[in-house]
Amino acid sequence: MTRVAVMGAGSWGTAFAKVLADAGTDTVLWARRSEVADAISARRVNPDYLPDVVLPANLVATTDAEKALAGARAVVLGVPSQTLRANLAGWRDLLPPDATLVSLAKGVELGTLKRMSEVIREVADVPEDRVAVVTGPNLAKEIAAEQPTATVIACADHDRAVELQRACSNAYFRPYTNVDVVGCELGGACKNVIALACGMAAGLGFGDNTMASIITRGLAETARLGAALGADPLTFAGLAGLGDLVATCASPLSRNRTFGERLGRGETLAQAQEAAHGQVAEGVKSCRSIGELAARNGVDMPITDGVRQVCHEGLDPRVLTAALLGRERKSERQ
Ligand SMILES: NC(=O)C1=CN([C@@H]2O[C@H](COP(=O)(O)OP(=O)(O)OC[C@H]3O[C@@H](n4cnc5c(N)ncnc54)[C@H](O)[C@@H]3O)[C@@H](O)[C@H]2O)C=CC1
Ligand SMILES: O=C(CO)COP(=O)(O)O
To test the ligand 2 pocket, which listed residue (19, 79, 82, 138) has its Cβ within 8 A of the most ligand atoms? Predict the structure, then answer.
């Protein structure tokens, strides 16, 4: 692949741009703020998001979207889910014809209940085969430290997925392809909500049995939603499902898990938000949109609904625990 533009120099946008540059791909990283672009150009560091990482010399940073997008074969979108529509609308007229549009974001849009690939298709007015998704157990800080990781590149057009796979394969980053875009996106969005629940459990002082139970039942409700929306059930046993759930629910690096832990310890939503220092915990918003998507499709997602009630209706996490355990007894397969 000749040239890739990464739009968004937050934690994951910066780490993914490093992955591409380390794979030998000509990569330009677009930052919103000139301080960030200047620090990357002058000192090879992103002080706000990855202060301890030396970025590769072949990674170019700019605040000029036109310059970043000119001649790009792939445009990687690394902004938070709820801002993707507005950001992309601003770049629409600059997108190179036939570039693959790649989402890094893990969320479902509030209001429209659309997945990120659907938002991209709508805003950029492109067919589904031009849109790809990168998802999996990909904590940005670990990848920036070059710790070995696998990921999934999902695209309806297998050839485009392979092209992107080549562009980002390196000694520490191993991407697999998948044609199940729906399943891969739902896995990435839903696991953030389940990680909030695991964080709450940790904040309440619960141990590994509780975590494993939430992860497994969280996967069950994610797979139920996937089945209703046409996903391949096997996707949820893969990197975009189980893989990402395990990484996010277990890691202190996860913003969603950390956010949930604060709520579990009794902090309010506002206190937890303040402590996040502007870093995005996508599940806080997506618990609403995913819950609505589930309701619209007649799918029961009790953990997701409970997380929504804690985040947005002030439910005490201890009351949520009792409510989940007190639900009507049923078969594991229901
Ligand atoms: N950080 C991680 O480990 C991973 C994050 N992701 C996903 O990638 C997406 C981006 O996450 P991060 O890079 O971690 O977020 P972040 O909070 O570290 O960075 C967000 C970036 O988007 C830019 N941005 C543009 N418009 C914005 C607006 N209106 N409001 C806020 N920020 C705006 C910010 O300037 C910043 O560069 C999220 O959907 C997240 O779930 C996925 C895998 C790993
Ligand atoms: O998506 C991630 C890991 O795959 C990052 O999780 P957080 O957004 O919770 O930090």
Answer: 138
